[in-house]
User: What shape does this take?
Amino acid sequence: MTNNFWQQLNKPILALAPMAGITDSAFREMCMRYGCDVAYSEMASVSALFFKPQKTMELLKFNASERPYVVQLFGKDPEHFAVAAKIVSTQVKPDGIDINFGCPAKKVFGHGSGCALMPQTALTREIISAVCANTDLPVSIKIRAGIEGRDAINRVSTTALQFIESIKDLPFSTVMVHGRTYEGGFSSVPDFAIVEAIKKILPDKIVLANGGIHTPEDAQTILKNHPTIDGLGLARGVWGRPYLFDEIKRTLGVSRPHRALDTQCPSAVEYDFEKIKKLATEHAELLWQSKGALGMFEIRKHMSWYMKGFAHASEMRQKLVQAKSMEEIKTILQ
Ligand SMILES: Cc1cc2nc3c(=O)[nH]c(=O)nc-3n(C[C@H](O)[C@H](O)[C@H](O)COP(=O)(O)O)c2cc1C
Assistant: This one.
């Protein structure tokens, strides 16, 4: 491994967790400007990279200011993982590669990828080994608290602890644990004690907790109750609030080593309506630069999230989700 950046990050590490359709270049840039320490890509199919890489390579493009940047791969074929790891390392050149063992979505899980791999120890070991053997970058994995085996598609149960015991000798460097089981979906109460138990099994690796972190207080409580955890993965909590990273760091009283934040924001930032409008414009501009007209379509959901919680902004929200150009968005926000 040439450079394990994970070990150099200040703790607690605040990561932007991977989200398909959300964590594109513009959103990662926004998060990095506002206090995020490391950002994951949207998940990328190893089979797409194996057979027809062009579209996926487009999805994985990034700017240097998004570093440290981790590309997440999903699939089930070790040979495809091997080739994809090589392509990503030599052509995309991120800072790390992540393997998706947590996705419950039908089109991923139903094909035997994502969380469906957790009970398949031999295959999982082959996949992690194939990726590690084909890259110099640090390899991370993203898992769930387990599978209870109640689902019609998969009746085999595994806990995250059994899973980690079965792979702990392999040379991956980091694990992000979504504290909900497969059956727990996206709304059950996450189990963070299991994340701490995993850190006990992997004292030399980085272990991050993910699930249901929406406020600085959520972050503070998890880190207080589970002090050995190395950091947190934020997902839906940062929709329309990329500055949640900054707010968490302020609440925890930790330094903010990130350059963009320090140059762009005064020391005591009030994330009031005026500031949010500026952030929304900043985000729209980044999307316009990276995706052009398509970006103007994608910005709609983000605009709606930025305006959420501002009751008096409902008219503005309605206009924003119909806007067709950057100029229109700017006019509405001003
Ligand atoms: C729209 C959406 C897309 C997601 N895409 C991915 C993905 O590509 N890879 C992955 O490992 N997890 C993915 N996740 C799961 C998140 O990374 C995270 O584990 C989950 O949302 C729980 O965190 P939260 O409760 O803070 O949202 C996705 C979640 C959402 C809501």
Observations:
- DSSP finds 15 helices and ten strands in the chain.
- Residues 17-22, 42-43, 72, 100, 102-103, 142, 178, 186, 210-213, 235-237 surround flavin mononucleotide (CB under 6 Å).
- Residues 260-267 have pLDDT under 50 and may be disordered.
